[in-house]
Amino acid sequence: MRAEIISIGTELLLGQITDTNAADLGVFFAQVGVEHTHRQTVGDNLPRIVDAIQLALSRSDLVFTIGGLGPTPDDLTRQAIAQALDDKLIRDPATVDFLNEQYGKRGLKMSESQFLQADRPTCGVPIENRNGTAPGLHCTTDYKHVFALPGPKNEFNPMLNGPIKAIIESLNPGLPIFSKTLRVCGVSEANIGEQLAELMASNDPTVAPYAKTGEVHLRISTRALTQSEADTKLQPISEKIKSQLGTAVYAEGDETLESWIIKTLTENKQTITTAESCTGGLLAGRFTSVNGSSKVFGTGYVTYSAEAKHQRLGVQEWTLLQHGTVSEETAKEMALGARGRTGSHYTISITGVAGAEPLEEPPHPKPSGLVYIGIASPKAIEVHTLKLRGNRQMIRDRAVSFALIKFRDLLLNQTSPLKV
Three-state SS string across the chain, please? Predict the structure, then answer.
């Protein structure tokens, strides 16, 4: 069975609200074996909503609308569904009784507009909403189904995973989709595409790359009756990818790069400290977001100014005057200073220019996106130079991601000599 989503609301088109409901619905389709091929977003305009529903019905078996079920003038979903199905609206007596009961419990007087929530096409039945007053709808016509779900998250999810799920499963839509995700770092999406071209051309299981900040996620998917059956098909492909990409594959599933690092440091009984300038504590935040990170991470320095770098980390005044706050030399002294003050096994320092304009400092202006990452270990100190593009937040996020990747490389090769 093929499904289509229609998200309704001008606020969605204007970007004032992020459409997380449609994303949840997409995940739901995969779990229940429904093929999801199209998605529309339309504003609060009756003719456009009707057109969207009719277009969806022309190519899909299941149409899901999200939003527009309330009692206000811009809640047009019921009326639009009726017009799209060439049906008429009637007032559902049971829903009227329910609304009277709910508003009566709260001592509120019902207005005529509130009763609009009880309207439904003659081909539809209300779907119970246990967390709100506006019921959902399930309409059937010509072997096709139109479902109307409320927009509020606390109403949407319970309805989707309760009565909607029961209805969909009764339709026997097909086999659910099972997926395994491999997380890759240090290799570009283009390079991965070249190495895995044959596997990515396969129809079952499918292999699809998704570029993230500083890494790529590879999703391997198949349809199967059970998880065990799916694993039999997914595991050989997973092993082939690991064999071809080697240590670039750092984890499976939801394990993040920082989680892998914290786990590895914990197993090795080693500690780490951060010393940040342009990233303002983002790297420390990535580490402390991991449960149990306090076993290996005790201190993080944010030294934004030259004075803070000198006073808190011991960066020499001569270094700052001769080379500037954004330099290889400063990154090195930040890392060594933080390690010396805490006694950590490792320290990562980050200093750079995240602003749109060049940083005017000696011995010459530093361009936007210039970032230095210093990593101090028991063996040596290494500094990596990055030239990043993007806005302020993108540069900061990318700097942190690259720092994690470079530090992971060090942990994987810590038995080998390091360049000083």
Answer: CEEEEEEECHHHHCCCCCCHHHHHHHHHHHHHCCEEEEEEEECCCHHHHHHHHHHHHHHCCEEEEECCCCCCCCCCHHHHHHHHCCCCEEECHHHHHHHHHHHHHCCCCCCHHHHHHHEEECCEEEECCCCCCCCEEEEEECCEEEEEECCCHHHHHHHHHHHHHHHHHHCCCCCCEEEEEEEEECCCHHHHHHHCHHHHCCCCCEEEEEEECCEEEEEEEEECCCHHHHHHHHHHHHHHHHHHHHHHEEEECCCCHHHHHHHHHHHHCCCEEEEECCCCCHHHHHHHCCCCHHHCEEEEEECCCHHHHHHHHCCCHHHHHHHCCCCHHHHHHHHHHHHHHHCCCEEEEEEECCCCCCECCCCCCECCCEEEEEEECCCCEEEEEEECCCCHHHHHHHHHHHHHHHHHHHHHCCCCCCCC
Asked, for residue 296, whether it belongs to a domain, the answer is: yes
Residues in the chain where the model's pLDDT stays below 70: 414-420
pLDDT at site 414: 66
Structure tokens at 129: 């909403």
CA 6/CA 9 separation, integer angstroms: 10
| CATH number of the domain encompassing residue 248 | 3.30.70.2860
Let me know whether 147 and 227 are in one domain. no
Rounded to 10°, the helix 257-268/392-412 angle is 30
Closest CA to 39 of 24, 68, 31: 24
| The pLDDT value given to residue 416 | 39
Spatial distance between the Cα atoms of 401 and 310, rounded to a whole number of angstroms: 26
The number of domains in the chain is 3
Within this chain, do residues 14 and 75 fall inside the same structural domain, yes or no? yes
- pLDDT of 362 reads 86
Domain stops at, among 225, 252, 279:
252
| Range 243-254 burial, b when 16+ CB lie within 10 A, else e | eebeebbbbeee
Q: How far apart are CA 46 and CA 384, in angstroms?
A: 57
Range of the structural domain that residue 47 is part of: 2-170
- Which amino acid, 336? L
Q: Which amino acid is at 270?
A: Q
